[in-house]
């Protein structure tokens, strides 16, 4: 078994970065395939913290190749800034270890402005986006007017592409009473940085096929989580890409049969940043406790993450939607001090019991969680490396969770540090 896709099974921030970094010791290639710098993936290695937004989490390891696939939307300035930042921490980033798809679509300043204009205008109905321009950039992609990495090669082509996309944006901006976005300044700025981006640009689909022939192990690194998927998430409070495992194939240019194992990253409780339904949310002392102990502040926007109990109904649902083979359960240690822990095992809507989250937003708001209670273990799990060494009540909670979601737990994470992870089943082994 060669290739593994790692995806978030909740609303993002499940600890994908930590697990991808840990697993990448076994991989040759790490590929980002969707999302953009709305992602914030944190790695802690020997006490040093690395925060990655666009760069794949394999970048910090030597002799690994990192790929940004065609499905990612790239803010070129944000990428260059991130490369400089990570280089300043002693990490090597050059054309030997970073490849960017020539077909990836660019996030430009008018996308970020449009994201902000819409969010500000929406008032209480806002989505709570990261305001990075993700939505408007994906809209231009499917609207077939986007500017892609390869468009930076020729000035005349870039000029023509900018003309097309700005015709659309300026019509909307005029309607909203905003100033017209000028082409020439942006073109000049893009041409200035073009060589720095283009030097990494390659046909990623071709490279991946070459790596496959050489039997290289590929790790596909998802961003966000399935509940933020534009088709399967809590629409409209979602991001603008498909976050499910199959997006790894379209977002990098290989078939679905290139993914041999789907690993779902799952927090031992639940968090969400931004607006939208959250059935098990705790707006009380326990919610605050989880937030403080779990350091639940956004990596990208520093916003406080909303916290709640583990929602088994939702995770069981997202596992089925994305064909998850195994789960990496993260942040177990955050529950260490609690007297009692709850797990949502069913919903009630208008007096009726439900075993899944209905798709309509109005119904999602009415959901009442039905909980199963567990005794806390009240002892430290940080740094435990073997399942058998976990406290008895922690094992009871984990076993029940595993049975409820009908999927094997293949690893358990007990701290932000790379090696504080219990391995149960290796996703890369046959
Ligand atoms: P991602 O977006 O899924 O990569 O997750 P983030 O990096 O945004 O958020 C996860 C946070 O939890 C980061 O600060 C990690 O360092 C931290 N983290 C990951 N695994 C664990 C764990 O098992 N225990 C604790 N306490 N923190 C963890
Ligand atoms: P990682 O990869 C958590 C959320 C935003 C907002 C919604 C839409 O670190 O898990 P967008 O800017 O994408 O249009 O915002 O999606 N969101 C995330 N929440 N983790 C993320 O990424 C997220 N990326 C986007 O907060 O609710
Ligand atoms: Mg994150």
Summed up, the helix count is 12
Rg, Å, rounded: 22 Å
Give helix % range: 25-40%
Query: Tell me, what is the CATH class of the largest domain?
Result: Alpha Beta
- CATH homology superfamily name of the largest domain: Adenylosuccinate Synthetase, subunit A, domain 3
Spatial ordering of strands, largest sheet: 9-7-5-2-10-1-11-15-19-20
Question: Which stretches are poorly predicted, pLDDT < 50 over at least 5 residues?
Answer: none
β-strand percent reads 15-25%
Number of domains: 3
**Helix/sheet category:** alpha/beta
Shape: globular
Bound molecules: guanosine-5'-diphosphate, 6-O-phosphoryl inosine monophosphate, magnesium ion
CATH T-level topology of the largest domain? Adenylosuccinate Synthetase, Chain A, domain 3
How far apart the termini lie comes to 5 Å
Describe the secondary structure blueprint for this structure.
Layout: E1 4-8, H1 16-23, E2 29-32, E3 41-45, E4 48-52, E5 65-68, E6 73-74, H2 76-87, E7 98-101, E8 105-106, H3 109-122, H4 134-142, H5 155-175, H6 183-198, E9 201-202, H7 204-213, E10 218-221, H8 247-250, E11 261-267, E12 270-272, H9 285-293, E13 306-308, E14 310-311, H10 312-322, E15 326-330, E16 340-349, E17 352-354, H11 361-366, E18 368-375, H12 392-405, E19 408-413, E20 421-423
Parallel strand pairs: 1-10, 1-11, 2-5, 2-10, 5-7, 6-8, 7-9, 11-15, 14-16, 15-19
Antiparallel strand pairs: 3-4, 12-13, 16-17, 16-18, 19-20
Helix pairs in contact: 3-4, 5-6
The structure holds guanosine-5'-diphosphate, 6-O-phosphoryl inosine monophosphate and magnesium ion (MG).
């Amino acid at each position: 078994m060669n290739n593994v896709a790692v995806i978030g099974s909740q609303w993002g921030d499940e600890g994908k970065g930590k697990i991808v970094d840990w697993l990448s010791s076994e991989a040759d290639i790490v590929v980002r395939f969707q999302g953009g710098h709305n992602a914030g993936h944190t790695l802690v290695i020997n006490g040093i913290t690395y925060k990655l937004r666009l760069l794949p989490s394999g970048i910090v390891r030597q002799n690994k190749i990192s790929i940004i696939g065609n499905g990612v939307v790239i803010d070129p300035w944000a990428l260059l800034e991130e490369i400089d930042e990570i280089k300043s921490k002693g990490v090597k980033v050059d054309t030997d270890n970073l490849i960017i798809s020539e077909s990836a679509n660019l996030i430009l300043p008018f996308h970020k402005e449009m994201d902000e204009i819409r969010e500000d205008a929406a008032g209480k109905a806002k989505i709570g986006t990261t305001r990075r321009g993700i939505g408007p950039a994906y809209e231009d992609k499917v609207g077939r007017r986007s500017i892609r990495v390869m468009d930076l090669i020729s000035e005349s082509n870039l000029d023509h592409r900018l003309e097309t996309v700005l015709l659309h944006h300026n019509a909307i901006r005029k309607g909203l009473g905003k100033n017209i976005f000028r082409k020439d300044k942006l073109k000049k700025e893009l041409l200035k940085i073009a060589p720095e981006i283009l030097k990494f640009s390659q046909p990623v689909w071709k490279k991946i096929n070459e790596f496959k022939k050489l039997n290289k192990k590929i790790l596909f690194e998802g961003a966000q989580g399935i509940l933020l998927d534009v088709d399967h998430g809590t629409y409209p409070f979602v991001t603008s890409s498909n976050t499910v495992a199959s997006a790894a194939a379209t977002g990098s240019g290989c078939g679905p049969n290139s993914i041999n194992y789907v690993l779902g990253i799952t927090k031992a409780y639940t968090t969400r940043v931004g607006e939208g339904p959250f059935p098990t949310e705790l707006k009380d002392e326990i919610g605050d406790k989880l937030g403080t102990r779990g350091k639940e502040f956004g990596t990208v926007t520093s916003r406080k993450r909303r916290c709640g109990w583990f929602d088994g109904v939702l995770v069981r649902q997202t596992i089925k939607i994305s064909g998850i083979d195994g789960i990496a359960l993260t942040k177990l240690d955050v529950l260490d001090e609690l007297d009692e822990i709850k797990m949502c095992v069913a919903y009630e809507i208008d007096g009726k019991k439900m075993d899944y989250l209905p798709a309509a937003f109005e119904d999602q708001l009415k959901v009442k969680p039905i909980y199963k209670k567990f005794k806390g273990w009240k002892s430290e799990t940080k740094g435990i490396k073997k399942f058998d060494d976990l406290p008895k009540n922690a094992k009871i909670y984990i076993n029940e969770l595993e049975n409820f979601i009908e999927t094997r737990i293949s690893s358990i994470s007990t701290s932000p540090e790379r090696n504080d992870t219990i391995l149960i089943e290796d996703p890369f082994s046959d």
